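DM from R.C. (forwarded with permission)

"hey, sorry to bug you on a friday — could you get me a structure for this? deadline for the figure draft is monday and I only need the backbone to look sensible"
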Amino acid sequence: MSPPQVHPFFNERSAGVLLHLSSLPDGGRGLDTAKRFADWVASAGLRWWQMLPVGPLPKPNHSPYSSLSSFRLGNYLDGEWDSLHTHCAERGVRLLGDLPIFVPMESEDVQERPDLFRLNSDGTPEVITGVPPDNFSPTGQRWDHPHYKWSAHQAEDFDWWVRRFEFHLELFDAIRVDHFIGFHHAWEIPAGSETAKAGEWGLAPGRKLLEAVIAKLGSPLPLIAEDLGHITPEIENLRDDFALPGMHIFQNGGKPHKEYTVSYSGTHDNDTLASWLEKTKASENCWQFLHRVFSSKSFLAIAPMQDYLELGTEARMNVPGTTTGNWNWKLDSNFLTGIHQEELAARLRSLSEETARA
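My reply, with the result:
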């Protein structure tokens, strides 16, 4: 394998915002609303707009990671995605997508290609995926997603994955690869287990998969590895050998030690920054904390919109390990027309300039 190349996008020091399309006041259905938000992102001196997965959902407010198809858009923008993408590009704003590593049992992916998944003879899953017990959940997380039959994917030179990456790269300028650890090993839970405690680690052919993607789509790949959790040297090597930046979450403590990372105040799985600072009795306020995130070595710094707005826990996006009350928050309908959005944009531009991200 030739020496890894760093994607040009990842050589620029910049900042961005995490806001799912469904979090827009109209739920992401209207092109005009999305364009106005992109205009605000540009006016704030931010250069990236990160979205959560945009596939079709079983019901409104379901987890975006439960998409019913890896190859279709959900009901967003009335079919005008290309128009939004062009609008963002003209304003210097790049779109960062999110590719879930696993797919739900009821998805078109499983129904159309059951041979690519580890299913019993009656079509039920042999094992399901998740994560072991951690700080988020003492019993782990049971995602109920069937696991891949890796031998079948390898037999087709990972064509399903190549097409999946290709589809997402047509929609976005770069992609955050969810649960990157799963490309090296995944937590396999017996389908009959009530919790994730009974699972065990199983290896995955991530290196061969990424090599197949590069062979078809070219290198360097504009991918960001969500490398959170228990990271082993093997996972670090897999990430670094393909020149993929990893992630650092400031709410989790510490600071990134190298430039080739993406720093976040928190992700969609964390409490809002204002609530977290209050609960931890921190000495900083939101803007002092964001200044620290923006001042980090990381080439890219991102914060959820709720953190820029200093909203409390009522605006939290998701509580891992729970199935109700999540994915409900939406941007206030007056934000895109109110004077406060101009004030916030000016404050963010100032922060970007102070931290050399403008």
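R.C.: lifesaver. The two ends are 36 Å apart (CA to CA).
me: no worries. The longest helix spans residues 339-354.
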